[in-house]
Amino acid sequence: MTSNPGIAAPAGDDAARLEQLSTFLRAQRSITAKAEIHQAYAPAQALSGAVRVGDDCAAIPDGEEWLLLAAEGMLGSFVAGDPWFAGYSAVMVNLSDVAAMGGRPIAVVDVLWTPGLESAGAIWEGMSAASAAYGVPVVGGHTTITRDGPAYLAAAVMGRARRLITSFDARPGDDLLMAIDLRGRWMGGNPFWNASTGAPAGRLRADMALLPALAEDGLCHAGKDISNGGILGTLAMLLECSQVGAEVWLDRLPRPSDSTVERWLVAFPSYGYLLSVAPAQSALVMDRFAARDIVCAPIGRITAAPALVLGYGAARLPFLAW
Question: How far is CA 103 from CA 5, 156, 158, 281, 293, in A?
Fold first, then answer.
């Protein structure tokens, strides 16, 4: 399923291809918005107390463990265009956020604004399907009947972690690993790579459990769930939280055989994580994923300079700095 770089291209070809990819990436608002997202949550910094803001979940100390709390809102156009999958995704993406922090989910609540309960049927069917597949109950929430206008949907999840994977602990010299489930398909012309719906429930649950197991065994310094900012938007958030940089090798990204690099760089996968791992532990981490038929490969390295540098073959090009 993965593509291979193949025979190395001449350095001039590498530089031209890298410039082409850089131009494409700079035009993607989903990526640049993630690089600026700290401005959106800056007001919460003064309100969060001892809880660090910027992770996939709020990590709240609870004795020797951590309670995790996360929330996601679905785009109104998504809810209107595919209400079943919007309901499914409202649960799924929250569970992925908990896993990214090294946690196990406890329960989900929803917030739904709908013009009528009958029109919300497909949304509830999607949420129910995800709840059953991942084995996490939807225990309540809030529903408002608007009588007019479109439906809006958000959900929140609570989880628990014995040991955290955070966005704040990437270290210079770490390997940057990408773990991705390629046993999926594109959702039409959308950027979503779906390896979840239709997969066996037991497989989905065991695959999610890989992340807390890695955390509890102390095998990851930092990590993040690949979100709708794609690989680089997600990485930019991780690097800024850790106040480090990275070099990313775009020609070495594991990807579906039918996908261009461009499309893959802006993809939102149902199961995809970036992990900052000490080189001595990388082989073990990759083996853990391989044992469950999930691709995990090095795609770069963490650096001390607060900048994101893109690589393609022998070429290198600065992309972001902070």
Answer: 35, 15, 9, 20, 21
The DSSP element (H or E) to which 222 belongs, if any, is: strand 222-225
Question: Measured in whole angstroms, how far is the alpha carbon of residue 305 from the centre of its chain?
Answer: 24
CA atoms within 13 A on the CB side of 170: 31
Spatial contact of 219 and 284, defined as CB atoms under 8 Å apart: yes
Question: At which residue do the structure tokens 């995800």 appear?
Answer: 130
Calpha distance 205→121 (Å, rounded): 25
pTM of structure: 0.91
DSSP code of 2?
Answer: B
Q: How do the residues of the chain divide into helix, strand and coil, expressed in percent and rounded to 5?
A: 40, 30, 30
- β-strand pairing of 268-269 with 175-180: unpaired
Q: Report which DSSP code applies to 56.
A: S
Question: C-alpha dihedral over 220, 311, 24, 184, to 10 degrees?
Answer: -50
Q: Would you state the pLDDT for residue 12? A: 79
Q: What is the C-alpha separation between 46 and 53, in angstroms, rounded? A: 10
Amino acid identity, position 225: D
Write out the two tokens for 281: 């532990």
Q: How far is CA 312 from CA 142, 244, 260, in A?
A: 48, 21, 14
pLDDT in tens, 204-252: 999 999 999 999 999 999 999 999 889 999 999 999 999 999 999 999 9
Rounded mean pLDDT, 3-32: 77
pLDDT score, position 3: 38
Q: What is the mean pLDDT of the chain?
A: 92
